[in-house]
Amino acid sequence: MDNWEKLQQYKERLLQEKMEQKIKLTLEWEAEKERRKIEEEKLKQIKEENMKKHQEFLENLQNFMAGDSCEPPKELNYVCDTRPGAEMCTFFSKTATCRFGDQCSRNHQYPSISNVLLAKNFYAHFGLDNMFENNEYDADIMLEYDENETYKEFEEFFCDVLTEFEKFGKIVQFKVCKNYEKHLRGNTYIEYADLRCAVAAYRFLNSRWYGGRQLSLQFCNIRSWRNAICGLQAKQRCHKGRSCNFLHIFRNPNNLFSLQKLPEENYIPRRRTPPRSWRWSESPETEIPKRTKSSREANDEEKKNRERRRSHKRKLRKD
Predict the structure, then answer these.
(1) Range of the domain at 145
(2) Could you give the C-alpha distances from 289 to 124, 157, 262, 319, in angstroms and in order?
(3) In this structure, are 67 and 148 located in the same domain?
(4) CATH of the domain at 201
(5) 143 and 203 housed in the same domain
(6) Where are the beta strands (DSSP E) in the chain?
(7) Residues 225, 230: Cα–Cα separation, whole Å
């Protein structure tokens, strides 16, 4: 009898514990459902608020771009620091570039918007890429891509690109680098007189294609062009040569945007390249084939090349 009662009590206790566990799980499930419901409502509210803020931002940006507002949206007035609190990188502060990139131990500050646009490595040319790397290419080949050839190509690039960027407003500075260092080589800086013009150019041209290359624009701060540009480069007296971290720039056609000139003294040169050479697009395109040379032109050019090679070899023997 006692064993039977103990067995019944044990069964009742198990049943009680089972009921309590079931009630506990039910309460926990109800609490979890309530928590999820509250969380979903919060997320929905946050999403609606973000959509509202984004819509307000677009309206403010549109008003700013249309000239109805003097100030840009406050959401755009911020600076991104790569290493907050660290010492400022001297070279980045002056040139908006650094050989170490964002891995630099010092701080780089990126403005959200500014009057100056930077297109990294935008101008590319065989002579520019290899003018310092004579070990990898035969001297006869490099003779055909001397600085004159590189500059001639630059003039076409200058007229092409300047004309396109001028569609968005007055440009007060336009500089293209011919440095050897890859973080500076071919960098193109465009400074607008009006902030909204720079924003419009960025919105329309960023990620578009030109000459088979995708344009990647970013805003940057150049506080002083004289401090950014190597002062000895123009006189060919830069003792750092290929290792210089200041801007070695091409001379613009007609000295346009020269630092010695006032902005109103600058004038736009006539476009030299024909319309068919335009290569701006939203997707990559193949290069337009160049005009085929006549046999006479080809023979004349071959004679010139042979003479240049002979002259170069005679010079090497003398040395």
Answers:
(1) 113-295
(2) 18, 17, 40, 41
(3) no
(4) 3.30.70.330
(5) yes
(6) 79-81, 109-111, 116-119, 171-176, 188-192, 209-210, 213-214, 217-220, 280-281
(7) 10
Question: What contacts 77, CB < 8 A, 6 or more positions away?
Answer: 112, 113
Structure tokens at 82: 């790569």
Write out pLDDT tens, residues 164-193. 999 999 999 999 999 988 899 999 999 999
Q: Which residue has the tokens 């440009």?
A: 171
Is position 229 within any domain?
yes
- Give the chain's domain count: 2
Is 29 in the same domain as 151? no
**pLDDT tens-place string over residues 85-101:** 899 999 999 999 999 98
Per-residue pLDDT at 71: 79
282, pLDDT greater than 90: no
Please check whether residues 169 and 122 belong to one and the same domain.
yes
Q: Residue 221: pLDDT above 60?
A: yes
Q: Is residue 42 part of a domain?
A: yes
Q: At CB < 8 A and 24+ separation, what contacts does 298-307 make?
A: 305/143, 305/144
**22 and 125 share one domain:** no
Give the span between the Cα atoms of 96 and 116, in whole angstroms: 10
Residue 239 pLDDT greater than 90, yes or no = no
Sign of CA dihedral 34, 39, 45, 47: negative
- Convert the pLDDT of each residue in 41-71 to its tens digit: 988 888 888 788 778 777 877 788 887 777 7
Domain identity same for 57 and 137: no
CB 186 within 8 A of CB 177: yes
Q: Which residues pair with 116 in a beta bridge?
A: 191, 220
